[in-house]
Each structure stands twice: as C-alpha cells, then as structure tokens.
Specification:
The protein is of the alpha+beta class and 296 residues long. The chain is built from 11 helices and 7 strands. It folds into 2 domains: 8-167, Butyryl-CoA Dehydrogenase, subunit A, domain 3 (Up-down Bundle), CATH 1.20.140; 180-295, Nuclear Transport Factor 2, Chain: A.
Length: 296
C-alpha cells in the first residue's frame, strides 16, 4: 500500500476517500489497540474527526497519509485513556539501519495475533504495523508517526526483533469458553434466527433496543429495529453460530454456500433483564474479521 501524494484516492469527496480507506484504517487501528472491536470504535472516532476537519484543512497533498495520521493520533488517545498514562514513548535518535523485511518474514510479522502486537511498546508497534502490515515506506512511517528517520529505524528494528521472539512463545492464557448461561441465551437467539422465526426474535428484544448496523445505519426502538430482521429474511447468505470473539460472547456468521470457509463477520449482543438491549452487527463491515481471534 502506497500513500501516494498524487491521490487518485482524493476521489470526488471526503466520503469516497473514507469508503476506500476504511478497511486499511481499521487494520491499523485494530492492531494498535489490540482488538478488532475496539479498533472499530477508534476508527469511527477518527472518521468523525476527519470529516469535521476536512473543510478547514486546505489542500491536502497526501490524503491517505493525512487519514492515517488522524487514525494514529486517535489510537494514541484511546490508549492513553485506557491506561491513564502516556502511551507513546519518544523514539531514540539512533543511527540504525532498518532493512526491508524479506517477503516471508514480512508475512510472518503481519500474521502475528493482535494480542502479540499489544505486547510491543507503542512506537515499535506502530512502525511495524505501518511498514510490514500495511506496506508503507520509511518516509511515510515518519510522516504518520511524526518521528525522525533514525527514530523510526530504531523502533522498527526493535519491534521486528521483539515480535519474532514473542510469536515463538507459547500462549499461556487458558482457552476461553462460553458460560452455560451465555451459551443458552445466545443459543436461543441463534436457533430462532436460523429458523427464520423473527417473530420469536422480536419477542426477545427490549422496547428501547438499539441497533448499530456498522458502516450502514443506526436504529432505535423495537419498531425500527424490527425492520432489520425483515431485511435478513430476504437473503440467504448467512448461518449463525454461537461463539466467542476476543473472549466476548458473540454470534459468528458463516456463508452456507462456502461451508469450508471461516466466518464472514460477527454480531455482538448486549442484554438487560433477559432482553436484548443492543445489537451490533458487522455485516457491512466485513473487514472486522481480519485478525479477529474467534472460537466456535
């Protein structure tokens, strides 16, 4: 991926640019904060900031780099809020050559789990993601991170070294599993959904239920959200399975026409007094599954 300054990506509007860049921006945000779910929240904040500042930004020579800079800073703000302390470590002015990773090594680094990326210091994490996952040049990494070239080289070299060491370590976390209550509750919802018994589903949702159809629409209240189920009744490219995503109870969505493929996306439910109070459906954000740790 090149953040080309000529920017055919400028498209005809900020909306076109955001649509084109959203999957790449999410890939960066998710690896920076260690979660595809939190990464989507960071991405949405970044997109709002981009839209709000676009009109007053003046001519933007490198629109993709501008967007990545906004996403980078928004991710840092998220990390600072989460840790209550400064997350970004200033890079050292070290004259260290960061050689391009070979193709095999680059693929290995890019496929590291989100939890593994989170164990890197922020500067190392950001430089490795930008260069080895997203394919930016050293100059582009410097622009996004606002670091000097020697500082980026140092962070990249150390990040690559540590990431390789961490990737070889065994995962000492116990395997996650749904509790019996979670499995029963999700199982009922999924069984009715797969049977296309949407009247039964509607009886499970709260009167003030909220729906976030990510990257598409938001709805509030039982009457509005009920139309969402009607849309699912018109298509057949889905089969729901209870599971876990990043150790959170979730509904994984598979395509019946591709039985040997993994999930296309997932849904998250929030419950209140045994009623579904919130639905977050990533059908229109299929990039969400990239890098997600899930278990059926």
């Amino acid at each position: 991926m090149k953040l080309a300054p000529d920017a055919s990506a400028v498209a005809t509007s900020i909306d076109g640019l955001l649509v084109e860049m959203r999957p790449k921006l999410h890939r960066y945000c998710a690896r920076m904060v260690g979660s595809v779910i939190d990464g989507e929240d960071v991405l949405q904040d970044a997109l709002i900031k981009a839209v709000e500042s676009f009109a007053s930004a003046g001519p933007i020579a490198n629109p993709e780099g501008w967007l990545f800079r906004i996403a980078h800073n928004t991710a840092l703000d998220f990390l600072r809020r989460r840790t209550r302390q400064e997350a970004m470590r200033s890079g050292e002015e070290v004259d260290m050559i960061a050689d391009p990773a070979d193709t095999v090594a680059s693929r290995q680094l890019a496929s590291a789990s989100l939890r593994t990326f989170m164990r890197l210091p922020v500067a190392q994490r950001s430089s490795v993601i930008l260069m080895d996952v997203l394919g930016c040049s050293l100059r582009e990494v410097c622009e996004v991170m606002d670091f000097s070239l020697p500082a980026v080289k140092a962070a990249l070299h150390r990040g690559r070294t540590q990431l390789r060491e961490l990737a070889d370590e065994p995962d000492d976390l116990p395997p996650p599993k749904l509790s019996e209550a979670e499995r029963d509750r999700l199982g009922d919802y999924v069984a009715h959904f797969n049977a296309r018994d949407f009247d039964a589903i509607r009886s499970m949702i709260a009167d003030d239920v909220r729906l976030d159809l990510v990257n598409k629409a938001r709805m509030n209240g039982k009457a509005e959200v009920s139309r969402y189920f009607g849309n699912y009744s018109k298509v057949g490219d889905w089969h729901l399975v209870p599971g876990l995503v990043e150790r959170h109870p979730a509904i994984l969505v598979f395509d019946p026409a591709e039985p040997d493929s993994g999930p296309k996306y997932f849904m998250l439910l929030r419950w209140s007094a045994d009623k579904v109070a919130m639905i977050r459906d990533f059908r229109h954000a299929p990039y969400i599954i990239d890098g997600a740790e899930y278990l059926v």
